[in-house]
């Protein structure tokens, strides 16, 4: 199949994603918009400066800790702990207006070839266990996953073959799932940067029910706020080809990591095998 937006044949190995052509806009329209933006920036900037002066005086009046105003010190400490613990090299993927979403092509059928009994399907989760102990196993129905907070996001899905599509996804954050069901820690406590670092599993493995497709993630990616256990695409329930009943969506990574039809999730102390990494692609597959 030839895809017009890709200059690389699909079989030629990893291709860099290309920027997609956007709707052409006249110079005049661009200038009008720029002028509006500048006016708004002045206004927003002025309000921010005022808030800054008021806030700054409040901060300077507060008692000092470590040569820094107390409230500032505490915020920096808390954020610093979280950031250094989990989001050292992280950013957020750009989100788009929902109206930009387009149908996503079907790509990749490993692990989807056998019939899936919708009634029999359960998400199996293997908890993180200290070495030499038997891990906890817990089963979840789709309804239990759907009972968690629903998050919707419109992000760009990028396949390593060189094409991309903006898609609206809905599901639950893997981090929210783990807040309710604390299976990523050996203590069974929710993820918390104040816990000893060894309490948290460094890796996650996701495998289809038939074990034909499998993905490995670092825990930082699994806990990222845009990493979803996803059950809806472009406003409709996921179809089997797109990974029903549950797939992974993690928009800072290429499509190869967005495993469709998740059967088992396991929290591990070793980097798990990954379908495309064992075939020569980068294990992290970030972009
Ligand atoms: N189970 C499973 N998940 C998979 C694949 C696969 O072959 N099997 N292919 C991956 C690749 S390479 C891509 S680009 C996306 C495509 O998702 P889509 O079919 O919903 O577009 O699924 C990913 N997840
Ligand atoms: Mo892909």
How would you characterize this protein structure?
With 287 residues, the chain is α+β, with helices and mostly antiparallel strands. It is 24% helix and 20% strand. It has five helices and twelve strands. It has helices at residues 27-61, 70-86, 142-146, 174-180, 219-222, and strands at residues 64-65, 68-69, 123-126, 137-140, 151-158, 164-173, 203-207, 214-218, 228-233, 236-237, 247-249, 264-268. The strands form three sheets. Strands 4-3-12-7-8 form a five-stranded mixed beta sheet. Strands 5, 6, 9, 10 and 11 form a five-stranded antiparallel beta sheet that branches. Strand 9 and strand 10 (236-237) form a beta hairpin. The radius of gyration is 22 Å and the shape is globular. It starts with 26 loop residues before the first helix and ends in a 19-residue tail after the last strand. The relative contact order is 0.15. Bound molecules: ligand MTE and molybdenum atom. Residues 104-112, 159, 208, 213, 242, 255-256, 258-261 line the site of the ligand Nc1nc2c(c(=O)[nH]1)N[C@H]1C(S)=C(S)[C@@H](COP(=O)(O)O)O[C@H]1N2. The ligand Nc1nc2c(c(=O)[nH]1)N[C@H]1C(S)=C(S)[C@@H](COP(=O)(O)O)O[C@H]1N2 is lined by residues 104-112, 159, 208, 213, 242, 255-256, 258-261.
List the helices and strands and how they pair.
Blueprint: H1 27-61, E1 64-65, E2 68-69, H2 70-86, E3 123-126, E4 137-140, H3 142-146, E5 151-158, E6 164-173, H4 174-180, E7 203-207, E8 214-218, H5 219-222, E9 228-233, E10 236-237, E11 247-249, E12 264-268
Parallel strand pairs: 3-12
Antiparallel strand pairs: 1-2, 3-4, 5-6, 6-9, 7-8, 7-12, 9-10, 9-11
The chain binds the ligand Nc1nc2c(c(=O)[nH]1)N[C@H]1C(S)=C(S)[C@@H](COP(=O)(O)O)O[C@H]1N2 and molybdenum atom.
Molybdenum atom is lined by residues 107-108, 159-161, 255-256.
């Amino acid at each position: 199949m030839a895809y017009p937006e890709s200059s690389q044949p699909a079989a030629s190995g990893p291709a860099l994603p290309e920027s997609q052509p956007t709707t052409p806009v006249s110079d005049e329209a661009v200038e009008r918009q720029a002028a509006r933006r500048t006016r708004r920036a002045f206004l927003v900037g002025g309000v921010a400066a005022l808030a800054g002066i008021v806030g700054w005086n409040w901060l300077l009046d507060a008692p000092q800790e470590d040569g820094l105003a107390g409230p500032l010190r505490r915020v920096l400490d808390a954020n610093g702990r979280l950031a250094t613990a989990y989001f050292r090299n992280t950013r957020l993927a750009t989100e788009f207006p929902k109206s930009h979403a387009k149908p996503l092509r079907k790509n990749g059928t490993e692990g989807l070839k056998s019939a899936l009994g919708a009634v029999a399907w359960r998400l199996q989760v293997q908890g993180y266990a200290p070495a030499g102990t038997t891990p906890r196993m817990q089963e979840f129905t789709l309804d239990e996953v759907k009972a968690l907070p629903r998050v919707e996001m419109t992000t760009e899905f990028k396949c390593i073959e060189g094409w991309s599509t903006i898609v609206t996804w809905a599901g639950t954050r893997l981090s929210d799932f783990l807040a309710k069901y604390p299976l990523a820690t050996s203590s069974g406590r929710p993820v918390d940067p104040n816990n000893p670092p060894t309490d948290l599993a460094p890796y996650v493995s996701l495998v289809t029910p038939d074990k034909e497709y499998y993905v490995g993630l670092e825990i930082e990616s699994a806990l990222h706020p845009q990493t979803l256990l996803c059950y809806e695409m472009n406003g409709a329930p996921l179809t089997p080809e797109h990974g029903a009943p549950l797939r992974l969506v993690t928009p800072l990574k290429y499509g190869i990591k967005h495993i469709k039809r998740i059967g088992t999730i396991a929290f591990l102390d070793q980097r798990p095998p990954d379908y495309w990494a064992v075939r020569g692609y980068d294990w992290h597959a970030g972009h």
